[in-house]
Amino acid sequence: MIDQVQNSPPQEAVELRERVAELEEQCQQMAKALKEALAQQDVERRRFQEEMEQFIFAASHDLQEPLRKIQTFGNLLNRSANGISDQGRDYMRRMQEAAGRMQAMIEDLLTLSRITTRAQPPEPVALDEVVQTVADSLRKQIERTKGRLEAGKLRTIEADPAQMQQLLWHLIHNGLKFRRPETPPVVRVHGKVLKGRAEGAPPWRDRYQIFVEDNGIGFEGALADRIFGVFQRLNGHSEYEGTGIGLALCRKIAERHGGDIAVQSAPGRGTTFMVTLPVRQLKKESAL
Questions:
Q1: CATH 3.30.565.10 spans which residues of the chain?
Q2: Which helix (H) or strand (E) segment is 85 a member of?
Q3: Whole-number pLDDT of residue 4
């Protein structure tokens, strides 16, 4: 455009310079508007986080306190009311169990909300060490079920260390919990680097895929999307314990890290979870 301006007749050169100046001013105005919009978005994000913190405080204190009283007075009644019939005691037991489940659901909801509000900046995380920590925490369950945890060589990625432990704990725990009757559970953890970059990702951003496989009861493949919903359960409380929020938490952790989670399963043939995460985190994701 500079050459065009220099070689143009005087009047055309003036008009071109004015047009260039006008375009530069528009670009500056657009850049300013974009900067202000981003700043406003950051303010709104911070306000949302503050509101979430207030909700967490209310849920942890105001909602759980009545449940604690129900459980406490139920225990007192069981100890002191000798005239209560067996049926009455059964009613109180059910009441306390329901209150306990409700309290566990509230605590799990708080954990889910903190994935974003109390997240830590990413740092190098040795997934081998994370799996070993999870194995130590689940050792009693592994021994009780005569199960086995097999882990292949895993690499180091940039992530929130605590959330990686939460993610792998829930997936491995699921493999141990949803076992077939009379069959010791076997959970295998391994991974691989995916060189093909995700859509929109920079060319240097490799992804790492973690596989958590088990030999458990499995489920119909058509239910694959449903199991990642909050409080979604495929089995009743009497069969398997839990609130049905663990896999929703896993999905939220994966998405917060710029990744995703998928599952393959079939009844009686076990389940395989596939978590895909970036090896390195972008700066904008580090601040989430």
A1: 123-286
A2: none
A3: 52
Rounded Cα gap, residues 112 and 132, in angstroms: 24
- How open is the CA angle 218-220-225, to the nearest 5 degrees? 100
| β-sheet bridge partners, residue 210 | 191, 275
| Residues in contact with 30: Cβ distance below 8 Å, sequence separation at least 6, in sequence order | none
Q: Residues of the chain with pLDDT > 90: what percent?
A: 32
Say how far apart CA 76 and CA 92 lie, in whole Å.
11
The residue ranges of the chain whose pLDDT is under 50 are 1, 5, 285-288
Give the separation between CA 62 and CA 283, rounded to whole angstroms: 37
Angle, CA of 12, 15 and 18, to the nearest 5°: 150
Closest CA to 55 of 99, 120, 109: 109
Distance CA 273, CA 172 (A): 10
Q: Are 149 and 143 in contact (CB under 8 A)?
A: no
* CATH architecture label of 123-286: 2-Layer Sandwich (3.30)
Name the amino acid, one letter, at 265.
S
- Per the confidence metrics, is the pTM higher than 0.85? no
Tokens for 128, please give them. Answer: 């081998």
Phi, psi (deg, nearest 5) at residue 242: 125, 165
> Smallest Cα–Cα separation from 147: which of 184, 177, 173?
184
Report pLDDT digits (tens) over 76-119: 777 776 767 778 778 777 877 777 777 777 777 777 777 766 77
Q: What is the dihedral of CA 20, 24, 30, 35, to 10 degrees?
A: 170
Residue 134 token pair: 């999870």
Give residue 94's identity as a one-letter amino acid code.
R
What distance in Å separates the CA atoms of residue 169 and residue 163, rounded to the nearest whole number? 10
252 contacts 112 by C-beta, under 8 angstroms: yes
- Residue whose entry in the numeric block shows the structure tokens 């528009």: 26
